[in-house]
Amino acid sequence: MSLQLFSAEWAERWCTALGQSATFRDAAAGWVGTVALVMRETGGEIAGAAIVDAGDGRCRSARAASADDLASAAYVFEAPAAAWNEVFSGRVQPAMALMTGRLRLARGSLASLLPHARAAAAMISAAASISGS
Known about the structure:
The chain contains seven helices and five strands, in the order H-H-E-E-E-H-E-H-H-E-H-H. It has helices at residues 8-19, 22-27, 67-72, 81-89, 94-99, 110-113, 117-131; strands at residues 32-40, 46-55, 58-64, 75-80, 104-107. With 133 residues, the chain is α+β, with helices and mostly antiparallel strands.
């Protein structure tokens, strides 16, 4: 049975995967913040969203994101389902998806994210590890 992308169960598994990732633990040491991933439908409506609260190399919590979560998240990445599938399957690297517009940073500054690029990549890698299940 396929897990619905960005559902509450998916978000819980994302948090667990982050907790098991030594790469994330090392890369995100000293970083505190919230990151949301949003899937948009063709018309622009939100089809699903998940948010993770990270603190000093660990996942403090994760859940399906509400509108309030998205309004307050430090970083919000948005894409249609096809783009998320490309990123999570490894066919497209997250940085390339951002540069080509397949993935959009809807909230937060790319300049403020750059020092945490390894941590962000580890977050995407953890998400990819559960998205294929």
